[in-house]
């Protein structure tokens, strides 16, 4: 690897790490941000709006991919991802100085959401530019290894955001952090932005794009050519369904859903859960480079699809082992105590609630939501029409209620129901959230306490699956499309897959848990998507590792 090639990789990767750092800061601090910028609402509503603003950044990513992908294929890779990092960095910095709702009222959440949308658009343009730029600088036979450094950036950005937040919290204390210290990680981004822009200004345009433009062969209408012509559009569709969808669900399961599962289902405290994930990311991140390098030897398809298949086959046993170690009391209660919900099936809804805006009032929905919140595994049996739902826990029965029929007595009815349910679950040895058997870390280096190290190893296995599917994906996508429309074509399937298939995974999986009564049932979502991707990819996706990406575009496919 030459000095210039190292510079290209370093500059592209460093900038992308900082963009992911900026993007994930919001998610890590969503509760505090909700209190600061949506303070005029009650706690439930402001948390809903905070999560909506977080989701907005994922949902607009494909639109950023279209806009900046087109720009990158028209004017060049270098200048486009220079623009994206400026937008991301300035948007993040402004959040750090933005007055709260207590100071400027409704304008605070409006400006915050606008900044979040800008972040999502910028991220939609960044990845494709960085991956394309590095791949077009890489020598033949080394693209998997070179682009794998870009693949580390999302994980390193997440790790960096967690590290800065933990350090700031420890340094100034929790009270000061909640008051003003939460702004520090956002303000730090201005220094990171300055470093990234300075480094990227030193770079030259991609040789493949430069040569193509000098010859007058660059696309005049990248969107039309990429998605309006079937010979190209079909590969965008196949890339989404045969590569990216499976990669996305494995990536989100191994990092975000694992964190969600630890906190929301296994009731591990947030500090410990974040440390467990941080350690697993630190240990497993080298896998991105390993599998990127290996894909240059044996191909992109075998590694990506093998990662999808292995993940699909092992998720159930791995998450059951994680449950047994992280919360043994819960695992034991699930095995020993049968819980049954007797309800009119017409009284039960599918509780898909990605925004938190939906309200469930029926007795069956209230019963299921309460059990899901306590991570109780249960089964449902049909009752006659009009029956008010009941929960049978061992030899005890708890009556649910209908919120609409309760009217003004709804709050009292709910309090009575929650108390009775809690007593019945406690009698059946279901643990409370603060149960001392739940694994707990008191400091970042407390990794050998009890079963903590075993738990980190299991979480690291999930990260290894992530590195298998994600390490070679940039090279595979770059090689799948011709130079003239490469930035546009690869960006859209990547961000639809990761922004939508992956971004909606926690909400979808939790809805499946609530509907089925099985805390592991949500794993069927990534399992089915990963398995489908393996089948589609095996049949329809060509192996691209030996493809010459500098060849004549007209004969590319």
If you had to describe this structure to a student in words, what would you say it looks like?
α4 runs antiparallel to α23 (486-502). The chain is globular. Among the domains are: 1-216, MFS general substrate transporter like domains (Growth Hormone, Chain: A); 332-427, Glutaredoxin (3-Layer(aba) Sandwich). Helix content is 72%, strand content 3%. The two termini are 29 Å apart. It is built from 25 helices and four strands. The chain has helices at residues 3-28, 30-37, 43-59, 61-75, 77-97, 101-104, 107-137, 143-172, 174-181, 183-201, 207-214, 222-227, 230-265, 270-284, 286-298, 300-326, 328-336, 363-373, 403-406, 410-427, 452-470, 473-480, 486-502, 505-516, 524-540; strands at 339-343, 379-382, 390-393, 396-399.
**What topology, given as strand order, has the largest sheet?**
2-1-3-4
- For this structure, the CATH topology of the domain at 1-216 is Growth Hormone, Chain: A
CATH class of the domain at 1-216: Mainly Alpha
The biggest sheet, with number of strands, parallel, antiparallel or mixed sense and barrel status, is: 4 strands, mixed
Helix coverage percent of residues?
Answer: over 70%
Alpha plus pi helix count: 25
Percent strand equals under 5%
CATH superfamily of the domain at 1-216: MFS general substrate transporter like domains
The rounded Rg comes to 25 Å
Order of helices and strands: HHHHHHHHHHHHHHHHHEHEEEHHHHHHH
Q: What structural category do the secondary elements indicate?
A: mainly alpha
